[in-house]
Amino acid sequence: MTCSGALLPRALAALILLAAAAAQAVEVRFERVTDGVYAFVGETGARTAANEGLNANLGLVVTSAGALLIDSGATHQGARQIHEAVRRVTAQPVRWVINTGGQDHRWLGNGYFQAHGAELIGHAAAEADLRARGHDQVQALRAVLGAKAEGTVPVLPTRWIRGGDDRLELGGVVVELKHRGGAHTPGDLLVWLPAQRVLFSGDAVYVDRLLGVLPVSLGKAWLETFAAIEALNPVRIVPGHGRVCTLEQAQRETRDYLVALRAHMKRAVDEGQDISAAVKAFDGRPWLHLQNAAELMPGNASRTYLELERE
Predict the structure, then answer these.
(1) Where are the domains of the chain?
(2) At a CB cut-off of 8 Å and minimum separation 6, what does 188 contact?
(3) What are the pLDDT digits (tens) for 159-199?
(4) pTM across the whole model
(5) Residue-wise over 42-65: b if at least 16 C-beta within 10 A, else e?
(6) How far apart, in whole angstroms, are the C-alpha atoms of residue 107 and residue 70?
(7) Residue 298 C-alpha from the chain's centroid
(8) What span, in angstroms and rounded, lies between the C-alpha atoms of 246 and 243?
(9) Which of 110, 251, 264, 268 could form a disulfide with 278 if both were Cys (CB 3.0 to 4.6 A apart)?
(10) What angle do CA 249, 251, 252 make, to 5 degrees?
(11) What class is the 23-246 domain?
(12) Which residue from 204, 207, 236 is spatially nearest to 217, judged by alpha carbons?
């Protein structure tokens, strides 16, 4: 009796811990965009243990020959949850995974899907970036996620797209891939479904939160990539971050910010203005309503100034 009485509180404590862990687990759920096309919209805040580093959007296209997953998630364990979410939508196996860029949540789940028979596809311009930053990305995730990052190792795409445009036909569904020199990262790739007029933009488009300019970002190419998006005139865009949106919202919250930031910093560089003064002088008020704007604007401005110095 005494032994069983002592075990009861321990069992109860274990159940409470399990319930707490479940409550903190990210829920991956794909929502319908149009027939056969789905999106998971991740949190727009920072990477946390609760969202398991999956603070970004994913795509799913179901074809008669298998499922196409657009981006594989941030971790091996997270990829397993993504796979379970795919299975709730379709019985088709995940046969192809496209990595739209070089951020951790775009490709660090690759190893899981490769082990389950998927072909991994990315643009050749991403290779050097993935090799350079992959191990650092894993270490950063381990610092935030702890045990939830276990099993995650960088696994590169097995099929590299070269050139600006490529066309795949997957189970009767036409998928066009477009690269215009990069954007948020050098390998940023647009995934266009012409029959559905749906675009998976990867990190070329941010809405609801301010975009981030990284040391590897390419502002001039980013605007060329956006011009390619405008030429497509999509009905729906699944952005890299934020809710499924229209082209008009993407123009306001991504293109217009980049145009204004680059124009301001170009004048500052041409006039020999000090970088700190140029950063302080940029008028970011039209975008302050976006999440993370106040924190990201100074860094975005300084990195854009430095990029324009090199151009």
Answers:
(1) 23-246
(2) 100, 101, 102, 123, 126, 179, 182, 202, 203, 204, 222, 225
(3) 999 999 999 999 999 999 999 999 999 999 999 999 999 99
(4) 0.92
(5) bbbeebebebbbbbbbbbbbbbee
(6) 10
(7) 22
(8) 10
(9) 268
(10) 65
(11) alpha beta
(12) 204
